[in-house]
Amino acid sequence: METTQPTATDRTEVAAGQRLTVRVPGTSANLGPGYDSLGLALSIYDTLTVETLSSGELEFELSGEGAETLPRDSSHLVVRAIDLALDRLGFQRNGLKIIAENVNPHGRGLGSSASAVVAAVTAANAMVPDEARQDRDWILQLTSEIEGHPDNVAPAIFGGLALSWQDSEQYSSTRADVAASVVPVVAVPDFELSTETARGLLPASVGHHAAAMNSGRAALLVHALTSKPELLLPGTEDYLHQSYRAEAMRPSANLISSLRSAGFAAVVSGAGPTVMVLANGEAEAAAVTAHIDAFTSANTPDVAWRVMTLAVDVEGARVEVHRR
Ligand SMILES: Nc1ncnc2c1ncn2[C@@H]1O[C@H](COP(=O)(O)OP(=O)(O)OP(=O)(O)O)[C@@H](O)[C@H]1O
Ligand SMILES: N[C@@H](CCO)C(=O)O
């Protein structure tokens, strides 16, 4: 979390006794050539319920991913993001009960940290009175600042395919609808790679030729995803990041090469090490799954893979306020 922590102490306290639930989709960023700009919302959901308490304590009920390892104090990512959002809104909290049901695997490239901060900031925004509440573009701005890039948070907020960009410190995003035949298939390995580590592997600059090649493929990818899925294989060719990160996720890189050689549009999901294939239709998705099973059985015996056929989430983050 790169944004500075709040310091204010003279804020209005949020009302105690509130309970709200946010459901947030996982996301796959980059999609090949869309480094730090394109992202897709996926049907794998984390659920965060927050209760505002009248005493100053923090209570945690964590289940699923990270339940054994995440901190249970104010250093928890969700609490830090709630505190920052409340501060920006002109509020502060008393105690909180955090109930997190985490399904999205951590450090695998499916946007788990983005889902957590989107859930937290959405929850904080729903905790304050109507007149103080902000819109989803405000949530995009703050969560992009926290993450350092908008490509995961945007689809987590808005659903669908998010095309995001940055002007100085200002983040923006627009949503596009993905062709109905596109089926995302993910292969999640049992090892982690943090986004921070993966970003550290990238060069400070790339040549003009690579930039030009990448621009063409990124433009093609948007057309392929929205209306011409038969062009997904050329549209997912990347020149900016995957090759530099391959050594840190060799089993994933080898699986991607094999899938692409067979004609399937395979990419590194986010910063990896998950592999995602954008299949064109259910029959192709089944063939992709069979290819992954055969390749990994023969070539990566030391890695356990979880293969999931998902859907594109079209709703984005959804908040439910429980009336008492
Ligand atoms: N639901 C959560 N609650 C609290 N902390 C979380 C949660 N999800 C992720 N995190 C924190 O974020 C870290 C993972 O973030 P990281 O950016 O490295 O990977 P990712 O978001 O899963 O993948 P990517 O950004 O490549 O899509 C976890 O190790 C954990 O510290
Ligand atoms: N665009 C980001 C996505 C992962 O958070 C990266 O590749 O580092």
TrEMBL record:
It is an enzyme of class 2 (transferase). InterPro entries: GHMP_kinase_C_dom, GHMP_kinase_C_sf, GHMP_kinase_N_dom, Homoserine_kinase, Ribosomal_Su5_D2-typ_SF, Ribsml_uS5_D2-typ_fold_subgr. Residues 77-160 form the GHMP kinase N-terminal domain. Gene3D superfamilies: 3.30.230.10, GHMP kinase, C-terminal domain (3.30.70.890). One of its GO terms (molecular function) is homoserine kinase activity. GO terms for cellular component: cytoplasm. NCBIfam families: thrB. This is Homoserine kinase. The lineage of its organism: Bacteria, Bacillati, Actinomycetota, Actinomycetes, Micrococcales.
